[in-house]
Amino acid sequence: MSVEALGGIFSGPNRTGSATLIGIGVGDRYNHMSSLTLQSMGFYNNIQSGFLDASAREDVSVVLFFGDNYNGGFVQITWPENSGESDFWCTPTVKSIMLIGSAPGGSGQTMLSFKDIFQSEWDAVIDAQLGSDGWRRGEPLLGWDMFTDDPNSKWLNSSLGYLKVHQDLTLETSPWPWDYDAWLEYWIYLYPSGGNVRAFVPQWRWWVDSGVIHDSVEAKFKPKVDAGASALQDDLNSKLQGYDALTQGRVNDVFLLPGRQGSPPGSDVHGNTGDDVTIVIAM
Amino acid sequence: MQTLGDEEFGFAIQAAGGRGRNPAPRPTVAASAMVFQADLGGTGGTKLPDEAGRFAKKQAKRARALGTLTLRAMPAWLDGLTERHMTPAKLVAAIFRRTLEHPTEASVLEAGAVLNEVARDPKAAAIVSANLIRDTRRIRTRHHAQDEEA
Q: Which of A1, A96, A145, B84 has the most Cβ atoms closer than 10 angstroms to its Cβ?
């Protein structure tokens, strides 16, 4: 496989200090450097400048994350096709990097906000699942989990990206007079099915506060979390069916961008992966 | 000492006579049995359905972790270069030249890993930086020329 766009990152300002190559391969969607990789190369919290020579065939974005493993605050800089070589500068607090290749000018791509299509569905599903056994503490955290290296995530593929929902809860423990805190998380994988976008929930996780009735509270909570996975998947797929008229069986790829991006990558984007995730449907 | 049923609940600290440091506190048998273990929660999951699995396989091939190459042994080409005891400038130039001849993702990744090692010497780091700027354009140009030929 050949190189589509190539550049470098430097520990010093204006192309000085230690350097290493960054780039994206032809046909690749993501090339990425995790926090562990940056640490092993001496670039963790130690990048101050860089450059990229644009691709002749696609737009290439460099996303600098100020949190570990593609999370937290980020800046996304895009090199449109054939835009030549240009530099970037940053504070030395970058903890992970991602390069994303996408169609020039966002051609054939539709962008959706995870929060907009999901949050109301989530509230309905979780409220129905919990019934009188508990309640949501605040709104969910809607983010992503990209190329996870968490050994506990055995149902996830470390080469894929997932949408992730985290919800804090309070569980009603009547007749025990003290409620228990808990949280649950679901991972969502989006894929084209019959040329339209569909969702699958490959993994879920839960936690219940420690205490003397922990086991009985968890025993009651766990089946609800398990059942919630398929309920969530069904509801999300019903919602996604609403976009079938738009996609008309032409979807050939689905990928994710950090934060809320209403238009194709162009000017610099600043945001936080906890704010939202952009679902890009490529046709 | 507080009690919980018939069991002791608390730590017993022995008072050592004479001068010197007190021994470390030793929990009683009852106290050590009361240590709470942090609950880490649980994880459930299920395999992707076939259609999603097929797409996932294709998608996974289009995501690549950069800079994670670990060399188990010195590549023969690098061994050949180092045997010639070149100056850092000539060594760096030779590595870039080799990458220019075969500008594939694998060769760029390998060059990146090797150059990172070469740059452990601060003098060599400056040379790598200088070459990096000039030669990435040449690698790109060469790669595009190869694509057009293909």
A: A96
Please check whether residue A79 is in contact with residue A55, taking contact to mean a CB–CB distance below 8 angstroms.
yes
DSSP class of residue B41 equals -
The token pair that represents B113 in the structure block: 């890993």
What's the pLDDT band for B1 if we cut at 50, 70, 90? very low
Q: B111 and A21: CB-CB below 8 Å?
A: yes
Counted domains in chain B: 1
Does any domain span residue B122? yes
The rounded distance, in Å, linking the Cα atoms of A280 and A30 is 13
- Is the distance from CB of A9 to CB of A31 less than 8 angstroms? no
Kindly state whether residue B72 falls inside one of the protein's structural domains.
Answer: no
Which residue's entry shows tokens 């057009």? B148
Give tens-digit pLDDT for A155-211: 999 999 999 999 999 999 988 999 999 999 999 999 999 999 999 999 999 999 998
Contact B44, A225 (CB under 8 A): yes
Chain B hits for A32, Cβ within 8 Å: 63-66
Residue B113: which domain range? 87-150
Q: What is the pTM of this model?
A: 0.82
| Spatial contact of A87 and A15, defined as CB atoms under 8 Å apart | yes
Tokens of A120: 């109301």
Could you read off the pLDDT of A8-56 as tens digits, one per residue?
Answer: 898 999 888 888 888 888 899 999 999 999 998 889 999 999 999 899 8
How many other C-beta atoms can be found within 10 angstroms of the C-beta atom of residue A165? 21
B45 within 8 A of A226, measured Cβ to Cβ: no
**A3-106: CATH homologous superfamily?**
Crystallins (2.60.20.10)
Residues of B in contact with A27 (CB under 8 A): 62
Q: Does residue B149 lie in a domain region?
A: yes
- What the block records as the tokens of A39 is 């640490």
Sole residue written with tokens 């934060």: A259
Distances from the Cα of A155 to the Cα of A186, A187, B95, angstroms: 11, 10, 41
pLDDT in tens, A101-114: 999 999 999 999 99
3-state secondary structure of A222: helix
Is the CB of residue A65 less than 8 Å from the CB of residue A73? Answer: yes
Name the minimum distance, in Å, from the CA of B40 to any CA of chain A. Answer: 7
- Distance of alpha carbon A279 from alpha carbon A239, whole angstroms: 14
Assigned token pair, A97? 């990097």
Q: Cβ B116–A189 below 8 Å, yes or no?
A: no
Assigned domain for B5 exists: no
Residues B109, B66 contacting (CB under 8 angstroms): yes
